Batch of 4 targets.
Target 1
Amino acid sequence: MSITLYNLDASPPCRAVRIVARLIGVTLQLTPLNVLAGEQMSPEFLKLNPCHTVPTIIDDGFVLWESRAIMRYLVDMYAPNHSLYPKDVKRKATIEKLLDFDLGTLSQSVTDYFYSYLMFGKAKDPDKEQKMKKSLGFLESMLGDNMYLAGEKAFTIADISVMTTLTIPEAARYSLAEYPAVKSWYERVQRDISIVNDINKEGIKEFRRCLQIPNA
């Protein structure tokens, strides 16, 4: 039985879930949900997810939303002890820390800066940009000389989550050159998942299309 994913191609969290599923060989039945048209507010969808967010999955009647929870669930359920999210307690705690950093600090500052002017037509806010730069500076320090966020020679769901967050600056043509470790890591993860990175490439194009950002 395949898993239903309520999906928006332009959404970085949706793409993170799809990438992880593809990497562990899990089939997702994509159900497009046009949040720009308000489809997430339909009574049918609100019964599934009162927070009306994507991604949302249904797996044999089990409903789950929040991308980081979904990624953890998919690996634990269908690829236990995979290097993406291993059972080792300390390794897992490190991954959890990074996911929390993405959710509460990095992703929040990135979306707050870019969405305010790309989606809502406000002037670029230098204070929001500085907050985002502070978050990127944290990420730069956390990476140091490490190849991956959790510090070992294999990427994890934390790398996938943070990488998809940073597709927003890429889509907006915002340079990460000020953060060389972040830039190198971002490019490395993209190469490492090249076999499934069509998900990101198409998603970035769709993000630009939705927000009328030229692709070239």
Target 2
Amino acid sequence: MLTLSDIYEAQKRLSPYVFRTPVIRLKTLDEALHCKVYVKAENMQKINAFKIRGALNKALQLSPETLKNGIVTASSGNHGRGVAFAGKLLGVPVTVVMPEHAPEVKKAAIKALGAEIVLCEKSQRFVIAERITKEKGACFIHPFDDYDVMAGQGTAGLEMMNQLPKVDKIVVPVGGGGLISGIATAVKGTALYFFTRSTNRSDSMKLYAPIA
């Protein structure tokens, strides 16, 4: 079970390596949405994505024995880049299994950090990653189904509550659920009141269309 204590420990662990990203007011959206709108600018994070928080929090807790044969993960891009960053920091090889049609810019960013990329059909990512993990005797870092990864993502929530302590609604994008699990745990544990709403890519487009 993920706890607030786990997220505070992750924050201490990550503090030498990640940025405390700013919260930015989007005044152009205030009128359209009838409220004050802020964003947590994780695009200004190292690797330009929040995924470094979870990947690195997991990797930093692994023993040298566990890491000796490297790390394997499955990702469409940002988590893979986070794991590649962790591998470079710790001096261990990383293999990222990616969909063959993943954006070239994400492939290039992962390669630039020294990781090996294995391309496959999107639906086969986890199957192939599991096989490679067994063949190499490596450690697999799941992109979302891992409490240490969730705790790392939750550090963004701790920062938000420090930066905007009176926030009353938080909208979180959802893919696998690691980010919202971490943020909801962080916010619930530190706020007197709060409301979280998840949004998938389809919901995001519905929001974007009327205000674009």
Target 3
Amino acid sequence: MCHIATWSSHCLQITNLDVPQSYIIQRGDEPSEDLVLDCEFEMDEAKSKGFVLKWKHNSLQIYQWIPVTSKPVAFASFKGHIDLDYQVSDDRFQKYRALKLINPAANFTGNYSCSVQTFEENETKTGHLQVIVPEVDFNLTYTRGNNGSVVVSCGVSDIYPKPELALFIDESQTKEVVLSEEQLQGTYDVTLQHILSDDSKDAAISCQLSIPGTNYTKRREKMYHGAAVRANISTLQALLFALAAAVFSSTFRL
């Protein structure tokens, strides 16, 4: 069906480009979900002469389908990573419009553009896909240093892309942190450290992990018992004092 505008008629239009915001690669033996990108369009078949559908990853063409040749073709580094038998419809002009990616990798991240064209018209739409390699570890700990201060540490390892970490003390985000980042073989290790300003008080500690531009987020929580630490220190000091007094008394009697 042609869409009539005030200045021209449009017989070819992309009505919906479905590119997922993000895709998570499963680690271990867990099967990954199918990754399908779809390009829904409307076209007046009377104006379909010269029809061709193409997909690009960033600026590189990776897929082309011309209905008169029946089967689609994959290009470049995506050869072997596109299911060329995948059909989204039985309609002869819609059958192979979608892109089903096989064994997605981190470098599949990028802009995906679908273009549909005839001899008379051409239309393109673009969406961004972020591939996520989930972390191996995400930990929140606290330790007492040699100088007696309590250091809170939040760390994530082997994740892609580079995440953001935020540390909260009693639900208030603290900016007084030391950040360390390291990239190894394409994934990231990120750590935040913070010294508690008052280690004698109880505190609810939490750390939030997120990947910008996606809905990927996780949180770790831990309770710091400052009163118990203070009591233990007082008890230890009392024991040391008693032991020292006993040793002194024994020495004096000798």
Target 4
Amino acid sequence: MVDAEQEETIIRHYFSLNYDYNTILSFLKRNHGINISKRTLLNRLSEYQLHRRHRNVEEIVRECISTELDGSGSLLGYRSMWRILHSKYGVNVPRSVVQVLLAELDPVGTQQRKAHRLKRRQYSSPGPNYCWHSDGYDKLKPYGFPVDSCIDGYSRRIIWLKLTKSNNNPHIIASFFLESIKELQACPALLRQCSVSFGETITIHYPVWVLIVMAHRIQMNG
């Protein structure tokens, strides 16, 4: 049997994890044998002085932008930041809102971008074949010449530079990767690939690449 003090501790715990009221009631009944109504739960929360804070969209966007500015998104303009908010956080707001908030939260960076005077970031890599960087070049695509390339982040060695039918087909990119590891007898721990669609860089770890290569082999042999 759960006493009043234990019940308060349990309810506070689930409330702190941001579960909705129905989920909290379900956990209380299933995990602790506490069977109370929603009205009783609301009364308990009022007694414990626990209140939900209803956040507006602008506050959520501001928090997401601040998180990105503290990390790899510190050099992003408002268009790229808008795409990040949509793809990474599921936040859909007009670009104008992102532009205003980004100028407010990062005034120095905004002025530098306007003046085309961006601060270069420091890049470091532990050694050869630790991280390969892959990207496509689309400027010649309208003329039928899509290009895909990859370099080693440590040595700047060109791993591949290919003129291909499509640099958006993952099977083609996987074939370049497979050919390169066969030729070099080496495989990177990480592959960083630029995603034009989402305006961000995707890091793929070695085990995932193994699955991609296996899927490519099955596709080609099937």
